[in-house]
């Protein structure tokens, strides 16, 4: 007997907002706050995860590109 897996219903969940101050956009990514603080040092301390909108996620990727590249080359 195979068990069917029901899909997650995103419509039931409240829409998350971007963690960057004064950004009203909906979040598309959730990252570790310690990593996001490298690109956006003025983020609040709590909670452990930081939600970012599409525009701020792109800024995060650009700001941390060199560190991420060096991290991949390390191993």
Task: Give an overview of the whole structure.
- The chain is α+β, with helices and mostly antiparallel strands.
- It has one domain.
- Helix content is 32%, strand content 11%.
- It contains three helices and two strands, in the order E-H-E-H-H.
- Strands 1-2 form a two-stranded antiparallel sheet.
- It is globular.
- It starts with 28 loop residues before the first strand and ends with a helix.
The tally of structural domains comes to: 1
Report the total helices: 3
Largest sheet: 2 strands, antiparallel
SS-based class: alpha+beta
Low-confidence stretches: none
Radius of gyration, in Å, reads 16 Å
Helical content stands at 25-40%
What is the overall silhouette?
A: globular
Strand order of the largest sheet: 1-2
Share of residues in strands = 5-15%
Mean pLDDT: 84
How are helices and strands ordered from N to C? EHEHH
How far apart the termini lie comes to 43 Å
Number of strand elements: 2
Task: Please supply descriptive tags for the structure shown above.
75 residues; alpha+beta; two-stranded antiparallel ribbon; 3 helices; 2 strands; 11% strand
């Amino acid at each position: 007997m195979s068990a069917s897996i029901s899909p997650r219903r995103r419509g039931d969940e409240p829409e998350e907002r971007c963690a960057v101050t004064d950004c009203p956009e909906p979040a598309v990514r959730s990252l570790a706050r310690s990593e996001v603080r490298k690109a956006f040092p003025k983020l609040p301390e709590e909670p452990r995860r930081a939600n970012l909108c599409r525009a701020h996620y792109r800024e995060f990727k650009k700001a941390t590109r060199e560190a991420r590249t060096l991290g991949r080359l390390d191993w």
